[in-house]
Structure formats: structure tokens, C-alpha cells
């Protein structure tokens, strides 16, 4: 199966929906078709199924121009699963799945053959909806209906399965069930799948490749890790995101970063002593409020470290899993010296990062304002047998300002730097 | 709903059996209807009560002792009338099924594209110009048929944009044209005061006009039309999930809509041309059958066609006999029985939907 799209353009009157789109769908792959609303994804699918007309030779199926195929050939090449399906008429599930045989049944007189019935049964089996066979289609839940429509698509015995946002009306378990099913069919039946998807993380997790459309143009195509980089997503969706690896699957996932209401930077400096994921929310809040934030000492791979990198915050860094060395401690102190205000997050204190607490004392002693977030009880973050708790109490006695929550901390920072 | 499940699915699993059952019901209905009447074993009217044996003998012309007019009542009046009722019922039910599928709307009926209002103008103008005498019994049917088709063409033109039929626009065009033509009919009736009594039975639908020539004219077109709708059953199924889905399943929705609208309009126009506007058959028969066999049109179309024939034969039998020595237009019966029955079915299926 070879499906190539070359220089495909499509217009609705004056509006140009697709502009010179070219790509190839590989045999057996699961290709995610993505892009913002109105970027032309559904139009592209409709051109493929010939529901909308396209230029001769713009779409080639196994070296044959799409427009030379008969209606039956088109319908036995592509099967479509729309966003949702509904009807007021009391079709049974079996009726709906049997509709998939329409392009294969040549005679208008003869009913379905034994082979047709076998294929219908097998398709329901594979899509996991056999037990629904005698139920009324309109009485099913959204997820069940999508399964039935997938079974219908399988009964069509297509070469390519086209999915148009198949998960859009499903809850989160339905979304994963649907995508697991699609992935399984893709692998087991070696069925080529092109799926319009909205959820970038879902797409990155399941798709072999991603084609990213923007305003009718193909912006990027490639493996999810190649296509989903912060610059491309900023360019296409206008959203500032951080790209991470899913710890369970190793696939990339994105998360939105700065809120869209970021205050223009005013240059007031704040230094953050943090670690173990306790500094991220502080960093993000201060960053959004326009502060110039620095942080230290953070081990590379600490999520606070990744957070700082995503926000382009300068960091006094240490190699992964190592004790804070003299060099990075010195750099940390230097950064703290540059800021009038130092904030200590409630990071877990162990032998390796005890020096971050010492850095706080250094700042206090050199006349800086120090805000310290304290978890209750303090012993929760103390992994050095009470030494850290004693030290934190000492800091508070020496004038560090104790706060209990993120909001309190931010409030203090704002009043102190005013 | 749950409790009815197994029984329903038995019929749904054995559509062939159900077809045989419906055909048997149709034949039985026709025979029963022949026996019902002011002359016959069943029915009103004391003086002409005869035994089943006599009726049977009169029909097959076996017994010379029976009065001559017995055979004439059966052969010249009742049998063509029952056959005509069967044909018209089948045509309307089949056309209704097709229209409901094309419009993807269970509230559609065979007259939705203006067939009945066009035919009414034709019939009324025949009455007005008084051509009945000149050209004979065919004037009103021919004018009704012609006006119905012209109306359908007009509605069809207004409902298509750029070569594509938009069913929503088509539906609204049909409603608008029908109300306009309704006013025209009222106008014609107002001016044809003397003759309008002739028109009333036609407007309400009546089988009293039945004759063999009508049966012969209708039998082949109705059979062909119903068969064509049956042959497109699979495509109609696909169309009910939307035009894009129909396309994706290999059906061409534009040509499908065109063929089905044409066939359904011809069936409906042919049916009403002779007997007048018989409402409700084309609406409720497809509904009743869907509740039994589901929406698969490979089964639904023949089921509705067969049941439509039986339904109208019974409605006509009632209309002939319910008031002694008088006949009601059959359209009144179909509406009187059909309306409440339809409401009952609607209520039951709604209750079932809530529970299920």
C-alpha cells in the first residue's frame, strides 16, 4: 500500500484551505494528523476519501491517481471513523457493522454471503463489540459507538483506516481504550492508520509519525520527538510549552509553560534555593510576575533543574546524584550575592545538599532578606537526623521570614521588593 | 423494552420468515375483505347477508341459482377495489419508507415534496373546468398525476443548490409549496361550489372509484417502483448515517437521493392520482414495521410494502362497513385509526427508551 499526497491544494471559494501539501503515508504506519482548529486536517481526510474533489494526480493510491478509482474501490481502500456517529433510526449494532460490506457486495438482489457474515463477526470480535451485536446502536454510549464504527471500518477491509478525531467525545479511559484498540489493529492487522488527533500527548504516545498542519500548510512531519519541539509548537499553536519524556513510556509529552498573562520583566532579582521538585511552582510564579530568577544548587535531572532550563533561568548546577561540590557551592553563593532576596523552598535536606541551607545562612549573614518556606512538621524534609530541622529553626531565629505556603511566599516577596 | 427483546430479535433474526408471515397476512386480508360488505357473509345490511358458501360460489361462478348481480358485485366492484387498496397502500408505505430514509427523518411522509398538494390542484382544476364529461374518468387522475409531478419538480429545483440536493432546503421548500398550493385548492373549491362535493371524497381519499382499469395501470409501475426501492436498501441504510458516511461506504449520495426521490414521488403520485390523498399510511406503516424488524432497509422496505397493502385493505373494509348503507372516505379511517395508534406507539417506544 502506497499513498502519496503531492502538492495538494484545496479551496472553498476564495478561502484556501490546503496549500501545496505533500507527504507520503508509509505502509503499516500510524500517522497522526495534527494542527490547530481550521488548519485543514478534516479537509485533507475528505480529499483522501474523495468526498471533496482534488486535482488529478495530487493523491496517488498504489501509483494510481485517486480520481481513476471507482466508488467501490475508494470505499475498499479507505474506511473512515468520524468524530461521532448517530442516527434516529433503530439500527442494531450488527446492521451498522454489516454496512461496512456495502462496497464489497456487488449484487443488489442477493443478501450478504456467508463470507460477509463471517467478516462482520470477526470485525466485531476484533473491535471488541461482539457482545453488543443485538443491541440498538442509538442506545450505546459514545465509546461503545466508536467501537462499533471501528468494527464497521474493519468490515470494509480497507487498506487505510482514517480516523477523524475519534476520541474527541470520549472520557479519559475511553480515549486510551480507543487508542489502544487502534494501535493494536495497526500492529496485528498491519493496517495503515491516519488519525486526526487533537491531544498532542496522546498522539506522541501512540503515533509512529506526526504530520503537523498549520493554516493549510504542512509545517512538519516526522517522529513525535522530532516534530514536537517547543519552537514548532510555539509557531503552530502559539503556546509556550516544555517538552518532557514520559517516565513510563519514554515517549515525549508536552506541558504548557508560562501563563499567557506574564508580566513584562522588571529585572528585580530573586535567588531560589531549592531542589527535589519543590522549587518549580515558585520559579514559575516569580517568572510570571516578571522577576529575574536564579536558582541553585540543583542536580542535573532534578525536575527543578528541568523547570529552570525550560524557563531559561540561570542555575548553579551539579552533576546528577553528586554531593554539592565546592565549585557549585561557590557559584550558588555568588548568584545569591547578586540578589537582594533569597527564597528557600522546603526541599528535602540530605547530606548531599546540606550546603544549600548553609547558603541561606550566608545570605542572611550578608544582610539579604531571606524567606523560608517551612513544611509542617519540619522533620518531614529532614534526612540528616534532626540536623536540618535545627538549622532551619536557627535561620528563623536569625531573622529569616517563615512562610507556610506558596501564596504566602509570593505575597512576602512582593511586599519585600516593593 | 428488555422484556420485548427476545421476541423482537426472533423476527429480526428471521426476516425471511417474517416476510412469509406478512405475505400470508396480506392474502388472508384480501380474502377476508372480499367477504366483508353489505353483500357478503360479514358486515352490515340485513337483507343481503349470504353464506360463505354462496359468496364463494358467486365468485367462482359455480352456482347458477344465485342472482347474477352477486358475481358482478364481487368481480366488478369489490375485487378491483381491494386490489387497488392493496396497490395504493403498498405504494404509499414504500414511498414513505424511502422518503424517511432520504430525509433521515422519521416524520417524513410520501407527500413531503409536494405530491399531495400538487395532485389536489390537478384534481380540483379538473372539477372546476368540468372536463370529466369530455375525457371521461381519467381526467382527474391524469391532471392530478401531472400536477403532482410538476410540483415535485418545482420543489426539487428549489431544494437543490449547485447540483446537490440539500434535504433540509428540500423539506422547507416542500412545506412552503404545499401551503401555497393548499390556498390555491381552497380558492378553486370556493369557485366550484356546485362541484366541490365531488372533490371532497378525493381530497379525503376514497376507494369508491376503483375499477379494473386503474388496477391494470398501477400494478406494474407500483411493483417496479417498490422493487427499485428494495434494491437500494443497502445504500439507504448507509445514507441514514449521513451523506459523508454513505459516500465513504461506496454509495453515491447524490444519485441515490435523486433516484429515491424520483421513485418515491412517482409511487406517491400514482397512488393519489386515482384514489385521492390518503394520509398516515405512508407515515405510520414504516414506523410500525421499524418497531418490529428494525431499520435495515433490506428487510424494512419489503415489510412496509406488504404491510402497507394489508393496512389499507383493512382500512377500506372498515370505511365501507362502519356506517350502514353509507361509505366513509378511507382517508378518514386511516387518520382516525392511525393517529391515536401512532401516538400510542410513540409513547411506548419513548417509555422503552427511558427504561432501556
Task: Offer a concise description of the structure.
The complex is a heterodimer of chains A (about 425) and B (about 350). Chain A has 15 helices and 18 strands.
Helix and strand topology:
The complex is a heterodimer of chains A (418) and B (356).
Chain A: E1 3-12, E2 15-25, E3 30-34, H1 41-48, E4 59-61, E5 64-65, H2 71-77, E6 78-81, H3 93-98, H4 114-126, H5 142-155, E7 160-164, H6 172-188, E8 192-196, H7 200-206, E9 209-214, E10 217-222, H8 224-227, H9 230-237, E11 241-245, E12 252-256, E13 269-273, H10 280-288, E14 292-299, H11 303-310, E15 315-318, H12 326-338, E16 341-344, H13 354-365, E17 369-373, H14 387-397, E18 401-403, H15 406-416
Parallel strand pairs in A: 3-8, 3-9, 6-7, 7-8, 13-14, 13-16, 14-15, 16-17, 17-18
Antiparallel strand pairs in A: 1-2, 1-4, 4-5, 9-10, 11-12
Chain B: H1 5-13, H2 15-35, H3 52-60, H4 68-102, H5 115-129, H6 132-135, H7 139-159, E1 160-161, E2 164-165, H8 167-191, H9 196-204, H10 212-231, H11 233-239, H12 243-248, H13 253-275, H14 281-293, H15 297-321, H16 330-355
Q: How does the overall form of chain A come out from the CA principal axes? A: elongated
The CATH topology assignment of chain B is: ABC transporter involved in vitamin B12 uptake, BtuC
Count of helical stretches of chain B: 16
Strand content of chain B: under 5%
Top-tier CATH class of the largest domain in chain A: Alpha Beta
Mean of residue pLDDT of chain A?
Answer: 91
| Biggest contact | A-B, 35 and 31 residues
CATH architecture type of the largest domain in chain A: 3-Layer(aba) Sandwich
CATH superfamily of chain B: ABC transporter involved in vitamin B12 uptake, BtuC
CATH architecture of chain B: Orthogonal Bundle
**Radius of gyration of chain B from CA coordinates:** 21 Å
Helix-strand makeup class of chain A: alpha/beta
Oligomeric grouping of the chains: heterodimer
**Could you state the order of secondary-structure elements of chain B as H and E?**
HHHHHHHEEHHHHHHHHH
- What structural class do you assign from the helix and strand content of chain B? mainly alpha
CATH-defined topology of the largest domain in chain A = Rossmann fold
Distance between the termini of chain A: 67 Å
Count of individual beta strands of chain B: 2
Report the sheet with the most strands of chain B, covering strand number, pairing sense and barrel closure: 2 strands, antiparallel
Low-confidence stretches of chain B: 1-8
Amino acid at each position: 500500500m502506497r499513498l502519496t499526497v503531492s502538492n495538494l491544494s484545496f479551496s472553498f471559494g476564495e478561502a484556501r484551505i490546503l496549500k501545496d501539501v505533500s507527504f507520503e503515508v508509509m505502509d503499516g504506519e500510524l500517522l497522526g494528523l495534527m494542527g490547530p482548529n481550521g488548519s485543514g486536517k478534516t479537509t485533507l481526510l475528505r480529499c483522501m476519501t474523495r468526498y471533496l474533489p482534488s486535482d488529478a494526480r495530487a493523491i496517488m493510491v498504489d501509483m494510481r491517481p485517486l480520481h481513476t478509482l471507482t466508488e467501490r474501490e475508494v470505499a475498499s481502500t479507505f474506511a473512515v471513523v468520524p468524530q461521532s456517529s448517530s442516527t434516529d433510526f433503530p439500527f442494531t449494532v450488527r446492521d451498522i457493522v454489516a454496512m461496512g460490506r456495502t462496497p464489497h457486495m456487488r449484487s443488489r438482489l442477493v443478501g450478504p454471503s456467508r463470507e460477509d457474515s463471517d467478516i462482520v463477526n470477526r470485525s466485531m470480535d476484533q473491535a471488541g463489540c461482539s457482545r453488543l451485536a443485538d443491541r440498538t446502536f442509538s442506545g450505546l454510549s459514545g465509546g461503545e459507538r466508536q467501537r462499533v464504527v471501528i468494527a464497521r471500518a474493519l468490515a470494509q477491509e480497507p487498506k487505510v483506516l482514517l480516523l477523524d478525531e475519534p476520541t474527541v467525545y470520549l472520557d479519559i479511559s475511553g480515549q486510551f481504550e480507543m487508542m489502544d484498540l487502534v494501535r493494536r489493529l495497526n500492529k496485528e492487522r498491519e493496517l495503515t492508520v491516519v488519525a486526526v488527533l487533537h491531544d498532542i500527548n496522546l498522539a506522541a504516545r501512540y503515533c509512529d509519525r506526526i504530520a503537523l498542519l498549520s493554516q493549510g500548510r504542512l509545517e512538519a512531519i516526522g517522529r513525535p520527538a522530532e516534530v514536537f519541539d517547543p519552537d514548532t509548537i510555539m509557531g503552530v499553536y502559539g503556546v509556550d510549552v516544555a517538552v518532557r519524556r514520559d517516565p513510563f513510556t519514554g515517549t515525549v509529552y508536552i506541558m504548557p509553560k508560562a501563563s499567557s498573562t506574564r508580566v513584562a520583566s522588571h529585572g528585580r532579582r530573586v535567588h531560589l534555593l531549592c531542589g527535589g521538585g519543590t522549587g518549580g511552582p515558585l520559579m514559575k510564579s516569580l517568572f510570571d510576575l516578571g522577576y529575574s530568577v536564579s536558582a541553585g544548587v540543583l542536580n542535573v535531572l532534578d525536575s527543578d533543574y528541568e523547570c529552570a532550563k525550560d524557563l531559561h533561568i540561570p542555575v548553579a548546577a551539579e552533576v546528577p546524584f553528586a554531593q554539592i561540590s565546592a565549585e557549585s557551592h561557590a557559584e550558588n553563593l555568588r548568584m545569591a550575592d547578586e540578589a537582594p532576596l533569597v527564597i528557600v523552598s522546603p526541599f528535602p535536606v540530605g547530606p548531599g545538599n546540606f550546603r544549600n541551607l548553609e547558603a541561606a545562612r550566608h545570605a542572611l549573614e550578608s544582610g539579604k532578606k531571606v524567606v523560608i518556606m517551612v513544611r509542617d512538621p519540619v522533620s518531614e524534609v529532614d534526612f540528616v537526623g534532626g540536623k536540618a530541622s535545627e538549622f532551619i529553626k536557627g535561620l528563623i531565629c536569625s531573622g529569616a521570614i517563615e512562610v507556610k505556603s506558596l501564596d504566602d511566599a509570593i505575597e512576602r516577596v512582593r511586599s519585600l521588593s516593593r | 423494552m428488555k422484556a420485548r427483546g427476545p421476541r423482537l430479535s426472533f423476527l429480526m433474526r428471521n426476516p425471511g420468515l417474517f416476510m412469509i408471515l406478512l405475505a400470508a397476512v396480506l392474502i388472508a386480508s384480501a380474502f377476508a375483505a372480499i367477504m366483508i360488505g353489505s353483500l357478503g357473509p360479514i358486515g352490515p345490511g340485513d337483507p343481503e347477508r349470504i353464506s360463505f358458501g354462496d359468496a364463494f360460489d358467486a365468485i367462482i361462478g359455480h352456482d347458477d341459482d344465485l342472482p347474477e348481480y352477486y358475481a358482478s358485485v364481487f368481480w366488478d366492484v369489490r375485487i378491483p377495489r381491494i386490489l387497488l387498496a392493496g396497490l395504493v397502500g403498498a405504494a404509499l408505505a414504500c414511498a414513505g419508507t424511502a422518503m424517511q430514509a432520504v430525509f433521515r427523518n422519521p416524520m417524513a411522509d410520501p407527500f413531503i415534496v409536494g405530491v399531495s398538494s400538487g395532485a389536489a390542484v390537478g384534481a380540483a382544476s379538473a372539477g372546476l373546468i368540468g372536463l370529466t364529461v369530455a375525457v371521461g374518468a381519467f381526467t382527474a387522475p391524469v391532471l392530478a398525476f401531472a400536477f403532482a409531478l410538476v410540483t415535485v419538480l418545482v420543489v426539487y429545483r428549489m431544494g437543490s443548490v449547485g447540483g446537490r440536493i440539500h434535504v433540509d432546503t428540500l423539506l422547507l421548500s416542500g412545506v412552503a409549496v404545499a401551503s401555497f398550493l393548499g390556498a390555491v385548492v381552497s380558492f378553486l373549491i370556493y369557485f366550484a361550489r356546485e362541484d366541490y362535493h365531488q372533490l371532497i371524497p378525493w381530497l379525503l381519499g376514497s376507494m369508491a372509484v376503483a375499477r379494473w382499469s386503474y388496477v391494470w395501470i398501477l400494478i406494474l409501475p407500483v411493483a417496479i417502483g417498490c422493487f427499485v426501492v428494495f434494491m437500494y436498501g443497502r445504500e439507504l441504510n448507509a445514507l441514514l448515517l449521513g451523506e459523508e458516511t454513505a459516500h465513504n461506504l461506496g454509495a453515491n449520495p447524490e444519485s441515490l437521493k435523486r433516484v429515491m426521490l424520483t421513485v418515491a414521488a412517482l409511487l406517491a403520485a400514482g397512488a393519489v392520482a386515482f384514489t385521492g390523498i390518503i394520509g398516515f399510511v405512508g407515515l405510520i406503516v414504516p414506523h410500525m414495521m421499524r418497531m418490529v424488524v428494525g431499520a435495515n432497509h433490506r428487510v424494512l422496505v419489503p415489510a412496509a410494502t406488504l404491510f402497507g397493502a394489508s393496512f389499507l385493505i383493512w382500512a377500506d373494509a372498515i370505511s365501507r362497513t362502519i356506517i350502514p348503507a353509507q361509505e366513509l372516505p378511507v382517508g378518514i379511517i386511516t387518520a382516525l385509526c392511525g393517529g391515536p395508534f401512532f401516538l400510542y406507539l410513540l409513547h411506548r417506544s419513548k417509555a422503552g427508551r427511558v427504561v432501556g
